[in-house]
Amino acid sequence: MKRDLIIILLIDLVIVVGISGFIYKRYSDYIRTQKNPLTAIDVKENISEEPVPEITPRSFQAEQARKLNAGVNTNMHSSTDAASGTLLVFRNILFQYKSSKANKVAIIGDFNKWDPQPMTRETGNLWKIAIRLSPGKYAYNYLVDDRLILDPNNRNNPVPNARGFKSSIIEIKPK
């Protein structure tokens, strides 16, 4: 009789612990989605598709010079700075993300107007992409199986951006 009671109590304890773990996991997933609700689909839908005004070469250079003086990264395709005439050096920056469980990985950021660029899977479950960037600060995230992820290898503190979520920051310095 006593032995049966102890067995029943142990079974009840295992059930309570299992249910508590399940509830905790569901709650953690819920909190995580509340902090980071955007997925790749949301990011694409939030990109404004306003018509681009017609720009003459002279007005383009004036606009780029104004932005550079204001400290805005313009991602110019020209090799000279319109304001000062100095040479801008573009650098190939290698982004890497390691995951054995990921089926697809892409990168989004200021440098590609938050449009996902697929990364290629290399040996050892390492995903890579090299992007040509001019000097400046850039916000970016990885999209791992359509989930927004901060760069786990970036030691800089993530910052909130205008899109409503936190992003990793990389600063490209001139050579």
CATH class descriptor name: Mainly Beta
Please indicate the percent range of residues in DSSP E strands (runs of 2 or more).
25-35%
At the fourth level of CATH, the homologous superfamily is: Immunoglobulins
CATH topology: Immunoglobulin-like
Order of helices and strands: HHHEEEEEEEEE
Distance between the termini: 81 Å
Q: Globular, elongated, flat, extended or rod-shaped: what is the shape?
A: elongated
Count of beta strands: 9
Low-confidence stretches: 36-60, 71-78
Task: Summarize it.
This protein has helices at 2-35, 40-46, 57-70; strands spanning 91-98, 105-109, 117-118, 120-121, 126-133, 136-144, 147-149, 159-160, 166-172. With 175 residues, the protein is an alpha+beta fold.
What does it look like?
There is one protein chain. The protein is of the alpha+beta class. It has one domain: Immunoglobulin-like. Helix content is 31%, strand content 26%. The chain contains 3 helices and 9 strands. Strands 2, 3, 6, 7, 8 and 9 form a 6-stranded antiparallel β-sheet that branches. Strands 1-5-4 form a 3-stranded antiparallel β-sheet, with no helix packed on it. The N and C termini lie far apart (81 Å).
From the structure above, extract its key features.
alpha+beta, elongated, six-stranded antiparallel sheet, 9 strands, about 180 residues, three-stranded antiparallel sheet, 3 helices, Immunoglobulin-like, single chain
Layout of SSEs?
Blueprint: H1 2-35, H2 40-46, H3 57-70, E1 91-98, E2 105-109, E3 117-118, E4 120-121, E5 126-133, E6 136-144, E7 147-149, E8 159-160, E9 166-172
Antiparallel strand pairs: 1-5, 2-3, 2-6, 4-5, 6-7, 6-9, 8-9
